[in-house]
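Field log, afternoon session.

UNIT: design team B
ACTIVITY: writing a sequence onto a fixed backbone
BACKBONE:
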C-alpha cells in the first residue's frame, strides 16, 4: 500500500528524522516522522507525524494520530518581553529572566534557550502536558 502526503512540507530531506518507539505506552510501537519545516536566526520549526499500527483492522492498518501544533501551543502559553539587556519568558506562573547583554546575545537575533513541550496521548491526539523554558546559559 502506498500513501501520499501532499500537505507535508520540509525545508530539506536531510532534516527528516525517523523513529520507531512505543511513545504512548500501549504496547505497540509507533512510527514517528519529524520534518524540519523552517529554520534561521536560532529558531527551528518542526512538524511531527505519529503513525500507529493496527494489526486488527486491515483497512486501518496504519493510521495517523495528530500532534497539537507546537507553535500554537507556544503562542497560547508563552509570553515574552525583550529589552536591549534582558529577555523575560513567562509560562503560566513561572517567570524566567535572562541577562542577554551579559552573554552578548543580540536582541531579536540570538537565542537564550528553547521551549520544551511534553505531550500526553489522549483521545487519539498528542496534546501538550507540560511546557518549559530551558536556558542555554548556565
Amino acid at each position: 500500500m502506498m500513501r501520499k502526503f501532499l500537505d507535508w512540507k520540509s525545508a530539506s530531506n536531510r532534516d527528516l528524522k525517523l523513529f520507531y518507539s512505543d511513545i504512548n505506552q500501549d504496547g505497540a510501537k509507533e512510527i514517528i516522522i519529524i520534518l524540519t519545516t523552517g529554520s534561521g536566526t536560532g529558531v527551528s520549526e518542526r512538524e511531527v507525524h505519529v503513525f500507529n499500527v493496527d494489526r486488527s483492522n486491515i483497512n486501518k492498518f496504519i493510521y495517523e494520530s495528530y500532534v497539537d501544533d507546537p507553535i500554537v501551543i507556544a503562542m497560547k502559553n508563552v509570553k515574552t518581553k525583550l529589552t536591549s539587556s534582558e529577555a523575560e519568558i513567562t509560562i503560566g506562573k513561572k517567570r524566567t529572566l535572562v541577562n542577554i547583554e551579559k552573554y552578548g546575545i543580540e536582541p531579536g537575533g540570538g537565542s537564550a534557550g528553547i521551549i520544551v513541550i511534553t505531550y500526553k496521548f489522549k483521545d487519539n491526539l498528542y496534546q501538550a502536558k507540560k511546557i518549559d523554558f530551558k536556558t542555554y546559559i548556565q
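LOG NOTE: Residues 85 and 101 are 5 Å apart (CA to CA).
NEXT ACTIVITY: expression trials, pending approval
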